[in-house]
User: Which sequence fits this backbone?
């Protein structure tokens, strides 16, 4: 399976962004998989930001983004989204999507989010 992330940008503190991740791969039945968003800031380890079950009925969030970020999915489009609001400088990172639980051997190129005035 291939992950293609998009939507990253430079945004001011307090701003919003929506990230998208499309998937491809004939053997990847998207609707059967949980999906997740991770991020990696410079000099830091990659961390789980949010995850969503295959049906979309259950979501989990890192404490640092609860109440500000929302993960969602469109199974028909094989796409997972991350709506981000109230962005803070500490949200600056490269954001990646993956399955959930993640396959740590398979990552896309990520999308850069920079929060700065």
Assistant:
């Amino acid at each position: 399976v291939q992950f293609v992330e998009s939507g990253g940008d430079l945004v001011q503190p307090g701003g919003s962004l929506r990230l998208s991740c499309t998937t491809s791969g004939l053997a990847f039945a998207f609707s059967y998989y949980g999906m997740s968003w991770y991020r990696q800031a410079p000099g830091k380890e990659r961390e789980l930001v949010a995850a969503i079950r295959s049906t979309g009925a259950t979501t989990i969030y890192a404490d640092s983004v609860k109440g500000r970020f929302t993960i969602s999915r469109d199974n028909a489009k094989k796409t997972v989204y991350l709506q981000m609001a109230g962005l803070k400088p500490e949200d600056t990172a490269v954001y990646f999507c993956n399955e959930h639980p993640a396959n740590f051997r398979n990552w896309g190129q990520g999308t850069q989010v920079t929060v700065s005035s």
Observations:
- The chain has no helices and ten strands.
